[in-house]
Design brief:
This protein is of the alpha/beta class. The protein folds into two domains: 132 residues, Rossmann fold (3-Layer(aba) Sandwich), CATH 3.40.50.2300; 237 residues, P-loop containing nucleotide triphosphate hydrolases (Rossmann fold), CATH 3.40.50. The strands form two sheets. Strands 7-8-6-9-5-10-11-12 form an eight-stranded mixed β-sheet, with helices on both faces. Strands 1-13-2-3-4 form a five-stranded parallel β-sheet, with helices on both faces. Helix 3 packs parallel to helix 4 and helix 11 packs parallel to helix 12. It is elongated. About 3% of the residues have low confidence. The structure holds adenosine-5'-diphosphate and magnesium ion (MG).
Length: 386
């Protein structure tokens, strides 16, 4: 029996979505541990001292209806299968079984259980996706994305910044990080899992996680919108905010990101060309029935006496300015050249304060709780008795 347990443990060792939370030697101990650990799934041997597996399964089914039991037994006869199911087991594994038999059975039982509980998904905390966007280069998308992300991360939020400006991404250089690992690795990966994404992140010292753009434009083509969506599927349960930096285009890839975003931070400056492009951008979104309520206008590089003011921008675009960031060229340029976020390096500057205030209002309107619990739905906590 010790041997069975160590075999099962070995088989499940490399499964990143299955976690063994306890092991019991007999039926009685199993019940005690279930009470304490409340696992999702119990792997139960039939032949056990004290209280046998069928009896223990019956008790679990009655007292803990949320806990799913899988019976393991050498007897492959119909009779045992029938008795196990009657006792309340959800599936049956005949020994000896392979790793894939074991993993598939656990996965199936868990999936069936989850399918009947949509309310669990409704409450599952998921990352808010914030995307900085503009149909013009140089307006400050990267500057704002990097600094907002750094500001949120420095308050202990779990933040991922994804550089989706795939041809000429600037996030790495803006934060002085070596692009040793990039999103290209994920496009090449056989499967995009959370573990795979995590392997390819760069961890910034302020606590921010970065997924960097390809090193050269020729590699950008490798990354398709389905890769971006799969990456989001993998990471949204474990982050509080995912922030996208984007290129000034509206292609399938940007639309895929924008569709998934909770907030689109549309960046404009007080230049007639920015006003014109932002207007066209808004009209395009409207034409394709994009959810306009997600769009927030950010006025960056605000400066007085340039012939266009905040009111003109609001009137011209027919949407209010959500946040204003002043022009502060010296700080912006220096922090860029030194590879440090100004929200951390010069937090009292006007430009930093405006971004910190933006972070405040984003966090203030945030109803998602800490992500600690969210991973639980992805992890099948497992207890087994044998
Ligand atoms: N509020 C600001 N004040 C002064 N300079 C800024 C400001 N925001 C951005 N910049 C500067 O503008 C240039 C373009 O910014 P960047 O973030 O690269 O734009 P984008 O990503 O939209 O192309 C950079 O040199 C940056 O330092
Ligand atoms: Mg940029």
């Amino acid at each position: 029996m010790d041997e069975l347990r160590s075999n099962v443990r070995r088989m499940l060792n490399n499964q990143d979505n299955i976690r063994i939370v306890g092991e019991a030697r007999d039926g009685r101990e199993t019940i005690q541990m279930v009470q304490e650990l409340q696992p999702h799934i119990v792997l139960m041997d039939i032949n056990m001292p004290e209280l046998d597996g069928l009896k223990a399964t019956e008790i679990l089914a009655k007292d803990f209806p949320n806990i799913q039991t899988v019976i393991m037994s050498i007897q492959s006869e119909q009779e045992y299968f029938r008795r196990a199911m009657k006792a309340g087991a959800k599936d049956f594994l005949v020994k000896p079984f392979s790793t894939s038999d074991l993993v598939d059975t656990i996965q199936n039982v868990f999936n069936r259980w989850l399918k009947d509980r949509p309310e669990l998904f409704a409450n599952e905390p998921r990352a808010e996706i914030l995307t900085f966007f503009a149909t013009k280069g140089g307006v400050g998308k990267t500057t704002l994305a990097v600094n907002l992300a750094a500001s949120l991360a420095s308050r202990g939020k779990k933040i991922l910044l994804i550089d989706a400006s795939l041809q000429f991404g600037d996030v790495a250089i803006t934060l002085n990080q070596p692009a040793k690992k990039t999103i290209t690795n994920l496009a090449e990966a056989p499967e995009i899992t959370l573990a795979e994404v995590e392997k390819n992140l760069i961890k910034h010292e302020c606590g921010l996680d970065l997924l960097l753009a390809p090193k050269e434009p020729a590699l950008a083509e490798m990354v398709k919108s389905e890769h971006l969506l799969k990456i989001l599927d993998a990471v949204t349960p474990v982050y509080q905010y995912i922030i996208f930096d984007t290129p000034p285009n509206i292609t399938e890839k940007e639309l895929a990101i924008l569709d998934r975003s909770n907030l689109v931070l549309l960046v404009a400056t007080l230049e007639i060309s920015s006003l014109k492009n932002t207007k066209i951008c808004l009209k395009t979104f409207n034409d394709i029935n994009f959810d306009m309520s997600k769009i927030k206008l950010i006025l960056n590089k605000e400066i007085p006496n340039v012939g266009i003011g905040k009111q003109d921008l609001e009137a011209g675009l027919a949407i209010p300015v959500y946040a204003t960031v002043p022009m502060e060229s010296e700080i912006a340029q220096r922090s860029l050249n030194q590879g440090e976020a100004f929200v951390l390096k010069s937090p009292t500057s006007a430009i930093a304060r405006s971004i910190i205030a933006m972070a405040d209002s984003i966090v203030g309107g945030d109803k998602t709780q800490e992500t600690g619990k969210s991973a639980i739905l992805k992890i099948k906590d497992l207890l087994f008795g044998s």
